[in-house]
Design a protein that fits this description.
This protein is mainly α and 66 residues long. The protein is built from three helices and two strands. The longest helix has 15 residues. The chain starts with a helix and ends in a 5-residue tail after the last helix.
Length: 66
């Protein structure tokens, strides 16, 4: 899965958590394209991986308890 603006907006609406424009850009830069490892293989995150990482990043960058 690749994170899209639509996915991020839906996550924000469902979780009712504010995401700043700069944080949204950071998340899209990190998870918005396929990752290629050192051997040239394409690694794709699962939906669960992405949402768990987003949750942790938002938790660490805000005062909102999860």
């Amino acid at each position: 899965m690749i994170l899209t603006k639509k996915d991020l907006r839906e996550y924000q609406e469902n979780m009712r958590v504010p995401i700043s424009d700069s944080l949204a850009k950071e998340l899209l830069d990190k998870y918005g394209h396929p990752v290629i490892d050192d051997e040239g293989h394409v690694f794709e995150y699962t939906e669960q991986d992405i949402y768990e990482q987003i949750r942790k990043i938002i938790r660490d960058k805000s005062c909102i308890p999860f």
